[in-house]
Amino acid sequence: xxAMHEEFAQDHFxxxxxxxxxxLDADALTAAWRRLQAAVHPDRFAAAGAAQQRLALQWSSRxxxxxxxxRDPLQRAAYLCELRGAPIDAERNTAMPAEFxxxxxxxxxxxxxxxxxxxALDALARTVRHERDAVxxxxxxxxxxAVADAHAAAAQVRVLMFIERFHQDLSSRLAxxxxxxxxxx
Length: 185
What we know:
HscB; Co-chaperone protein HscB; Helix Hairpins; ATPase activator activity; globular; HscB_oligo_C; protein-folding chaperone binding
C-alpha cells in the first residue's frame, strides 16, 4: 500500500491506467476499478493498525470517486476540461449562446403546452434526446479530435448540463405517477 500512497494524487485516468480521452473503454475502466478496489478494500486491513485502515479507507473512497466521474460521460467531459485548463465553473459562468437560450425557452413552452398530451411529450423527448446526442458528439470531437479545444468543450458541457436537467424534468413528466401501495399487514 505504500507504493499506492505515492500515487494518490494521480489524475483519474492515470489511476486506472487509461489514456486521458473522452472516449474510453468502459469494460477496461470497470476491470481496473475492481482490481484496485480488491487491493485496497478496507476489509483487507481489518487486522492492521489504525493508520493502515484509515489509508485503505481513503484509497477506497478516492478510487470510487474517480470511477464515478469517469463512468459518467458528462462528469468525464467536465473533468477533462478541468485537466486541460478549462474548468466548467457552472455556478459563476452561466453565459449561454442566444440561440441555445431561445431553444430552451421554446422547449419550456412546448413542455407547458404538452402537459397531459403524451404524444406531444414523446415528440419533445425525442427532440431533446436528439439535441443531447448531438452535443455529446460535439464534445467527443472537441475533447478527442485532431484539433482539441477544451474551452469550447467546457461551453458544450455547460449546455449539456442544462439539457440533462431539462431531460430529467421531461422524463419525470413522462413517467406514470406512482401510487403508494399499502404495507402488507
